């Protein structure tokens, strides 16, 4: 649907000073030529770690029957979204560095913005759903399997995708109504919605209202849901008499709490740092934290702090080692 809007919008543009140039210039993180190979190597490494780390989580969850539970179903979905999230921006950035071209067409920019918003909001929704899952598991353990049934889990993920897609489509369609000036330099390494609005020559009041309203409702609502779930979880844990029982209950949500803290702290940190410094370059560097670093660290957090994942990984590697030895004829080697 977005592509139909784009095609219709571009073909009906009138030639004029504000619509001739349909290309944006992504300034990236640094203008220094000698730093480009370093930036390329660093981001390529982080991207590969992100993709392979999250793919390993998906493979582990899908191949181990012990992990076929709602918690790990949501985790595998989060890993898939994290791969898509980084793939929206990093490959294009690497291509621009390799070809020494910073140009991004109007169509590509709007498309990138659409998918960036889609997966960013979807990340928030999945983290909220995972918080609700932990709330049910700890506060209502006897009814957990009844409440968190297969149908509800699938419905929660489906609704998350639908709401994210509708919001992303709304923001993109709102962007299509704007006319842009001739100076189309974006001080980021991707097409960020707020930066695009600042480049527009036409009235952006309605765009800003829609953008901030969606951020308040979706972002604020998700954060409120997470905080409410954990307030109930903390109250429930406090009522447990034994220290071992408290530790066991808290350990089941420690990984998720770490990921939530990392995601929201980096996101809010970028927002407040850009608001305080009014420097587009510094906020672009800070945006690396939640667009690249957070998705990269998620697999490490879940694999290092989660005993179930660690045991499943050990079983996978053990089976893999046995198969390799069997192929080499060394299975019974002393």
From TrEMBL:
CDD domains, alphabetized: 7tmA_OR7-like (cd15234)
One Pfam family cited in the UniProt record for this chain: 7tm_4
Main location (coarse class): membrane
Record carries keyword Protein biosynthesis: no
Domain G-protein coupled receptors family 1 profile residues, every copy: 53-302
Family assignment from sequence similarity: Belongs to the G-protein coupled receptor 1 family.
Protein name, per record: Olfactory receptor
